[in-house]
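A note from the maintainers: we've had questions about how concatenated examples are separated. There is no special marker in the raw files; a new sequence line simply starts the next protein. For clarity in this README we add a label.
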Amino acid sequence: MAFLSDIEIAQAAHPKDIREIGAKLGFSEDDLELYGKYKAKVDYNLMKNKEKTGAKLILTTAINPTPAGEGKTTTTIGVADALSQLGKNTLVALREPSLGPVFGIKGGAAGGGYAQVLPMEDINLHFTGDFHAIGAANNLLAAMIDNHIQQGNLLGINPKTITWRRCVDMNDRQLRNVVDGLGRPVDGTPRQDGFDITVASEIMAAFCLASDISDLKARMGQIVIGYTYDDNPVTAEDLKANGAMAALLKDALKPNLVQTLEGTPAFVHGGPFANIAHGCNSVIATKMALTFAKDYVVTEAGFGADLGAEKFLDIKCRMAGLKPDAVIIVATVRALKYNGGVKKEDLNAENLEALKKGLPNLLKHVENITQVYKLPAVVAINRFPNDTEAELALVESECKALGVNVALSEVWAKGGEGGIALAKEVIRLCETGQNDFSYAYELDMPIKDKIEAIATKIYGADGVNYTDEAEKALARFEKMGYGGVPVCMAKTQYSLTDDQNVLGRPEGFKITVRDATLSAGAGFIVCLTGAIMKMPGLPKHPAAERIDIDENGVISGLF
């Protein structure tokens, strides 16, 4: 039996006019800024004077990702469609894909199989131009920094302390470290520089945490770009850059309305990486979803629960005043066997011993959600054809020992119908589940105590080591008055440790913080661990090699 690819399924679909999707949420045609027939921007000011509906917020997270695949976005979309099938007025809130992963390893990132958001090609390629606007705002600030130095440097910026980097929405290792300003005196001041991928830019992080354009402009102004020769911080507001930066982002700040294959409305907006930033769609989109969906909003946080969910709960929920009503933790039998030491090519064979060895990774994430954050949770097993009944029963029994039910998810193959059991458990949890939501740390704790709390409670580490560079950076931020902000850990997504090769649920390890950076506009401190970097590279055979377009404009190879 031949299976259709994700893009073939998407191209065979018959989406509804976006005005019809908007009408489900009470939007008139005048409320929508149309980008063709199937996507539109919606002004967040429509939330003003709108009564809250009391919609429940569902967070989807997962185990640490593996090459075997988990299907977190697919599950998020599928359970939303299942809730819609059960007669619930539901809305999905997702991040926008970055072109880096689209052309790198992952390919498309709009769900999969029969649980996708449409138009799949547009969402993955440029979409409504939000990321380009974010890149333009980032690079405008970079240009104004160097121009200020070139024009006399009235602020006394020390070029060797500049922390602000340029960005591009592409995996390009060649741009990690560059020297610019070469040439004649009029061509600028030569200095070391570099590029980050756009989704790692502080602009993206602040954009996704802003409540409106005024808040965004204030956040842009608070960005620290470097230091003077007297070691005083210099901000974007000092350079008079934040007004123009916010102007570039005016339209991008409006959430993008699209739909699932089954016509469930979806906001797709913003996209910070979870292994570098906070890994969640915009606060504005989430709040709009909660304002206009009558019953349920299903959202996701990037990578495993140790990264995306931790940051969603400790950073986004805290800043935005959100409280999830239930959490879905996605896993696959295949991924758990991979955590148990099985090679990728051998994952189709039943292996209860390896599964039992890999299960602690899932159980750690379950414990974090239910015991650290005290939220009701369900484990969604994204079922593959080769999963055996014995394997599924083992996962279910281990999760039930922690008081958490397991629901099989077959949304990839069946769409919303394959997520009915999961959706019913989500409804039950929202109505009867124990919810005593709390954070992993309090803001008034010293910075190091917050880092320690995340490392020990969430990762299971014995403690934290700091390089001299990290020690100096954290001490500087405390002295500057930033001791009371959240901590954003930049860590590999593949492991609970800071070493991507350590699978399962390791014990007896420490996390090493090698450096720390201040994201004053976003409102948090970033701690860099392991080999994490802000500009990925392309693999030996990037996904771009498989993407093509024919004479009729039909795209192929996009996952």
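[label: protein 2]
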Amino acid sequence: MQHLLNLLAAIALLVWATHIVRTGVLRLYGANLRHVISRSVGNRFQALLAGFAVTTLVQSSTATGLIVSSFVGRGLIATAAALAVMLGADLGTSAMVVVFSFDLSWLSPLLIFVGVVLFISRESTSVGRFGRIVIGLGLITLALQLIVGATRPLIESPAVRQLLATLPNDVLLDLLVGAVLTVLSYSSLAIVLLTATLAGAGMLPAGVALGLVLGANVGSGVLGVLTTARADIATRRLPMGNLLFKLAGCVLVVPWLPQIHVLLQQQLDNVPQQVVAFHLAFNAALALLFIGLTGPLARQLERWMVAPAPHPSQSRPRHLDPVALQTPSLAIACAAREALHQADVVETMLRGVMDVMRRNDLQLAEQLRKMDDTVDDLYSAIKFYLTQISREALSEREGRRWTDIVSFTINMEQIGDIVERVLQDVEDKKISKGRSFSEAGMAEISHLHERLLSNLRLGMSVFLDGHVNDARKLLEEKARFRELEHEYAANHIARLRDNTAQSIETSSLHLDLISELKRINSHICSIAYPILESAGVLAATRLRESRLAELSADETLR
């Protein structure tokens, strides 16, 4: 019983170590990996190499598939190019199996020691995050050694030998078992390494091991389909096409499996090497056979899996891809895009306020007030989406971006509430009572409104690009807007002294309105604070002018 427990613990350590490496690489290089993939799909061979390169780093074709599937769903990569990326990703995983199949027992303690030192000494930096990856690599090699050690006593047991002798030589059963184990462990890499190790220890016949390897490949494809099951149709095309390639490869290989087994025995004496070589050869054959069929299969998938017409409602989140949650850096980008969608709805509300006041349009006022529910719904959706992103897997920069998105969506939600309140006041105090602003008063409100729209567009640009100069301009607008509010309030008081009838009738609404516009502007200008603070140009009470001048000069040169 103790030996079996040791084996299960070693297997669990192997699966966990691959998870550590995968999340560590995504945390350190996530954004760069996305750029590598998106810029390397000019042709199918470049796409294949990009998939190979990224997966050798991430050590998970599933993780690569999730990134690429999200790109396909957003229309950034064609399905045919994405299928080529996945052929390269599967080849990259099999290459990493080859690397880990060598005797790296001498390397394991070194990797773990160096990784722990880097992680503890510089935990919050890129060096510390790289140390986490090194720890994972060391644990993988350690887990493989533990599996070998735990299997020796089991092999010597007569009961285990008798059980192995009675195992049915059924390739389909081996395929099923390998696929199920891969789905449960979320790693074909771990299952193939485990299979090779157990086969080398004599716990698995070589023929059964080859069947399990095929099952691990199928399981990897099934895992991609299951992970994207809740995504849109366009996103689900890639994992379905990748699974079809794997199934087609198995159909072609299974009838020749006995001959392949004999050939492997003739070429390689070591059983683990036979298993690893078969895994590599299988994925290399898939890449060679199907690289020319990515286009036809992509067209067939687009015919079979037709995307429904987009929902016309603005309240529906457009960019919160659940698949991207598996890749935190990608999920942050999705949340930022949805936040801009929320800001677009707020801009529509704010732009319509003047039309309501000029035309006394009650129907438009009602439509705009209902849009505040849309803003609230989008805020709730973005906030819930962000809470599902693993903060542990975020880099320091992505963690700040996470906070910026939350702050931005809160400001947009509060602006929506203010606009709704303004519309209600206009309806109650102006339209329903048949009142109108004086010509001078209306001109002042229009001027403030125009500046507000301009500041909102500038704020959206600051949120999107994070330029320090634009953030400084936005913050300066806060002081200018406050001065205008004081000036226009004083002008209104002067008109009251002159007994201007229209000013007297709308006095309360006028003063409340310019005050609410200033409050909206304050929420817009607060977008600049995180940018300036992270750049080190924001003091407790004022801008650090010297530091700001340096950054402004650098941006001008760029």
